[in-house]
């Protein structure tokens, strides 16, 4: 009987470069207050957000993802024709097919790549990074482009007092490739579908008859339920991520959680006992919550500002609708 041959390559993989696209329009809390009646100072106290980025008409999901991808390739020094796989995490594509990743691969000239989208909400980037790391580690792809891109404003009820002040748009990307030492630690990820009502869409795109609802579906969220779940689950999960990577909090140069809410970030950082030497990502202050794009965008901000060093160790933690989480320790590009 014939035996199927498998790849026998096992090699370290890591992040080679990062790039982002931040939409031009910056929306202050005062503008959100005008249409929701919320106090601007309350918004900042509740979320940490002062401003957030909204995409313009020309800043489509594909355009933003492509722009971030091109910057990541340039930072990594990897030509597009060496990319073997493009993985794009998003929940805001308005077209079920083709995948946005296929369009990105075409636009950047990754003619030898396969490409696909994944949907894991605000934890999508860390899920995609886990897949990319293993593809490179096992030799199935030499280089993988990982993108998180969202136009959250397309699925937002801009008058909803629970969500209108939080969500935003943007894109971030990293190139994953072979490295001399391990640059992506083991991923810890779990999903709890019993809590899916805490963060979901108001309705399906159609009701079973094929008709779209008169009012487009939007995000609905119980912020308190998400907060309680996150503060209960993320600290032990983060400890597991560190333990499986063989590092301690003292080794961390950066903590880069999903930019959901500053209160969650501060709670987890305090419970982990992170000291002043660990840079904590706070990109949410000026970028808002961009779902799957928030972690690579926050990573780029820490590196470009000099708050975290290239080659330093960072703990990434994504979490969101499901409810679910995923994360890993990485070496920064």
UniProtKB/TrEMBL annotation:
Record protein name field: Beta-ketoacyl-ACP synthase III
Gene field: fabH
InterPro entries, per the entry: ACP_syn_III_C, ACP_syn_III_N, FabH, Thiolase-like
Enzyme Commission numbers on file: 2.3.1.180
Keywords from the UniProt entry: Acyltransferase, Cytoplasm, Fatty acid biosynthesis, Fatty acid metabolism, Lipid biosynthesis, Lipid metabolism, Transferase
Entries under CDD domains matching the protein: KAS_III
Species for this entry: Streptomyces alkaliphilus
The family this protein is said to belong to: Belongs to the thiolase-like superfamily. FabH family.
Class of the enzyme per the UniProt entry, highest EC level: transferase
Pathway: Lipid metabolism
Ranges for domain Beta-ketoacyl-[acyl-carrier-protein] synthase III N-terminal: 116-193
Alphabetical list of Gene3D superfamilies matching this protein: 3.40.47.10
């Amino acid at each position: 009987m014939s035996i199927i041959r498998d790849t026998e390559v096992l090699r370290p993989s890591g992040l080679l470069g990062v790039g982002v696209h931040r939409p031009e329009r910056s929306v202050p809390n005062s503008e959100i207050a005008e249409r929701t009646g919320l106090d601007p100072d309350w918004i900042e106290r509740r979320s940490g957000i002062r401003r957030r980025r909204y995409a313009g008409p020309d800043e489509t999901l594909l355009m933003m993802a492509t722009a971030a991808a091109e910057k990541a390739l340039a930072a990594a020094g990897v030509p597009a024709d060496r990319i073997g796989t493009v993985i794009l995490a998003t929940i805001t594509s308005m077209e079920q097919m083709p995948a946005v990743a296929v369009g990105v691969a075409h636009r950047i000239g990754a003619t030898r790549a396969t490409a696909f989208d994944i949907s894991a909400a605000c934890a999508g980037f860390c899920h995609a990074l886990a897949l990319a790391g293993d593809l490179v580690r096992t030799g199935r792809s030499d280089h993988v482009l990982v993108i998180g891109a969202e136009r959250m404003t397309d699925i937002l009820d801009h008058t909803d007092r629970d969500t209108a002040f939080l969500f935003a748009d943007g894109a971030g990307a990293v190139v994953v490739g072979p490295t001399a030492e391990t640059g992506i630690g083991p991923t810890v990820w779990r999903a709890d579908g019993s809590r899916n009502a805490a963060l979901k869409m108001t309705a399906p795109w159609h009701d079973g008859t094929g008709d779209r609802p008169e009012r487009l579906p939007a995000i609905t969220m119980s912020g308190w339920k998400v907060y309680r779940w996150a503060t209960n689950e993320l600290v032990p999960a983060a400890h597991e991520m560190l333990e499986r990577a063989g590092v301690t909090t003292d080794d961390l140069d950066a903590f880069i959680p999903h930019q959901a809410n500053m209160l969650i970030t501060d709670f987890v950082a305090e419970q982990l006992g992170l000291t002043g030497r660990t840079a904590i990502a706070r990109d949410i202050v000026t970028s808002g919550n961009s779902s799957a794009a928030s972690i690579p965008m926050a990573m780029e901000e820490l590196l470009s500002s000099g708050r975290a060093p290239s080659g330093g160790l960072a703990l990434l933690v994504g979490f969101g609708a499901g409810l679910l989480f995923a994360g890993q320790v990485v070496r920064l590009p």
